[in-house]
Structure formats: C-alpha cells, structure tokens
Design a protein that fits this description.
14 strands; alpha/beta; binds guanosine-5'-diphosphate; 319 residues; three-stranded antiparallel sheet; Rossmann fold; binds calcium ion; 39% helix
Length: 319
C-alpha cells in the first residue's frame, strides 16, 4: 500500500509514528511543510521537516516535541556573548549540525529535496520525506502592533511573540511561483490513499495545498483523501491554529476545518468522539465522517487513530 501524508511538525510527526506502527508494510511518502523555514545566523532551518525526521529517526527531544534529545546550547551562549541576533529562536548544538550541513549543501546548489534525502540517510525515518517545494516559501503573519500593522515571519509570531499580538492576515510569500518538489506529484498520482495529518490547517497543511498543482493533483487523484481533525472539542490540542483559522474564514471546530478543506478535496474526515455531534454536518457536505478518539496520548492511541484513518479510506474507496 502506498500512502501519502501531508504533514506539519509536531502534530504530523506524532501521527506518523502511529501510522508507521499501524501499517508497517506500507510505503509512506510524507510531503512536509516548508512555509516555516527561516534563515538565522546564516543557516537555513526547516523546523517541520526536521521535527518529522528527528521524531521518526529517534533523535527528537520527546517532552519538548521539537529539537534534538540530549541537547546542549554552548553555541547559542557564545552567539549571545557577541550580542548576535536574534536570540529568541532556540538552536541547540546538535541541531546546529543539521542546519550547517543543510546550508553548506544548499549553497553548493543542491535542491532542498536532495538535501533532505542526504539528512534522512542518517536518520532513516522509515518514510520518504519530501519538502512540498524546493523553492523558498515564507509564511508571514500581519499583526497589529499598537495602531500599526506589521508583517512578521511565522516563526517570529509564534516563537518570539507567542501568538499574542492580534493577527490580521496570513500570507505565503513566494507561493505563486513555487513548484512542487520532485517526486511530490508522482507520489500523489501513484498513492493508494492520502492522509491529512492532524496538523495546523492554516500554517502546516494550508501552505502544502497552496503550492500550485498540489491541491489539484489531490482533487484529481483516484486515491481517497482522508483527514484527521487537529481541533478537538472546539479547541486546539496545542499551538495557535485557533488564532489563525478566523483569518481564512474557518471556525475553530472539527466540522469547520473539514468544510474549510471542502468536499472536492476530502473524501473522509475523522473527528474526536467529543465532537460526534458534528459528524452529520460534515456528512451532508458529501464527506464521509466518523467519530473516534483523536488524542495522541501514547503510541497505542495514535496507532488506533492511524488505523481508523486507513479503515475509513478503505470504506470511501469502495463506496
Ligand atoms: P507544528 O508544525 O509543530 O505546529 O505541528 P503540526 O502543524 O503538525 O501540528 C499542530 C496541530 O496538531 C495543532 O493544531 C494541534 O491542535 C494538533 N494536535 C496536537 N496534538 C494532537 C492530538 O493529540 N490530537 C489531535 N487530533 N490533534 C493534535
Ligand atoms: Ca510548523
């Protein structure tokens, strides 16, 4: 079975761990969000790709959910000693090795997809990890700063400003001319099923779908497309999607997110059991919907979620 998964960082990576255990013989291709990517201290950082790679490769800081296990911060302290900016983004010593090698390869002209392959050769995540695009795309948030509007990189909004300033717009700089990375459209065309991880719909799955050609390929694909709600009980499980969903006109609810993706894209949708009352609202739009537990408390719970998604895909495929 060939499965394509659209994934952001922490939510996507944890889900993928469950999926790998649920269907160990499947060939899984992950299309990762690169809208979060940022250049700091001259180094190119790809937070979502790295979170997937470290989580599945056994290098993740488990409690934190991002960054390396056994991390130290000597380089960051030395940079701070020079007053080097910015200081709001935590870059550990072990993690820096990834960014140094990536930046070195990119500077030599290697596309991001090939760089990601090279990094994954060490981590062996058990999936094929593809960036959504090799072209630079930057998710930017326009915020209210007093009575001024200011555009900041998504990382600055989230990591430095903790999503406190009021967001007024989200923009994907560079998206119009971005091309799907090599392998992305073929993986979609050859997939037996496509899953949307319970990742942030605005700044994780949204940018992937916005790369010209990707959403159309999913709509055209014969494979069923099934998503899992990142919204449980009308709230985010973690993160700031509730602050950003209004910007794209989507209510913070499990059904709202499904209808936002829309029935032309989605064949199936899973909501948490606490949201069972929303199943009909999704189903009337033509999206098959089931309510199952969707909290990734531990690996068995996550495996069950992944299995439910694969099962639902099987049902919509024969329907
Ligand atoms: P990020 O790039 O690190 O922010 O990670 P993702 O975009 O992949 O995932 C963030 C989303 O995962 C948030 O919107 C959360 O609500 C969602 N999420 C986190 N943990 C869980 C969980 O246990 N269950 C569900 N259903 N969603 C979750
Ligand atoms: Ca992210």
């Amino acid at each position: 079975m060939r499965i394509v998964v659209l994934s952001g960082g922490i939510g996507g990576a944890r889900f993928l761990r469950g999926l790998l255990a649920a269907v160990p013989t499947a060939e899984i291709t992950v299309i990762g969000n690169t809208g979060d990517d940022i250049t700091l201290h001259g180094l190119r950082i790809c937070p979502d790709l790295d979170t997937v790679m470290y989580t599945l490769g056994g290098g993740i800081h488990e409690e934190q959910g991002w960054g390396r296990s056994g991390e130290t911060y000597a380089v960051a302290e030395e940079l701070a000693g020079y007053g080097a900016q910015p200081q709001w983004f935590g870059l550990g010593d072990r993690d820096l090795a990834t960014h140094i090698l990536r930046s070195q390869l990119l500077a030599a002209g290697t596309p991001l997809s090939a760089v990601t392959d090279r990094l994954c050769a060490r981590w062996r995540p058990g999936v094929r990890l593809l960036p959504m695009t090799d072209d630079p795309v930057e998710t930017r948030i326009t915020i209210k700063d007093g009575d001024q509007l200011r555009s900041v990189h998504f990382q600055e909004y989230w990591v430095r400003l903790h999503a406190k300033p009021e967001p007024v717009a989200v923009e994907l700089a560079g998206i119009a001319t971005a091309k799907p990375a090599p392998g992305v459209l073929t993986a979609i065309a050859e997939a037996d099923l496509v899953l949307l991880a319970p990742s942030n719909p605005v700044v994780s799955v949204g940018p992937i779908l916005a790369v010209p050609g990707i959403r159309a390929a999913l709509v055209d694909s014969a494979a069923p497309v099934v998503g899992l709600s990142p919204i449980v009980g009308g709230a985010v499980v973690r993160g700031m999607a509730d602050k950003l969903l209004p910007l794209i006109g989507v209510p913070t609810s499990a059904s709202g997110v499904a209808l936002g993706y829309g029935p032309e894209l989605l064949d199936g949708w899973l909501v948490d059991t606490v949201d069972a009352a929303e199943v009909d609202q999704v189903a009337v739009s033509g999206i098959e919907c089931r309510a199952v537990p969707l909290l990734m408390r531990d690996l068995p719970a996550t495996v069950a979620m992944a299995q439910a998604a694969v099962d639902l895909a099987g049902q919509v495929a024969v329907a």
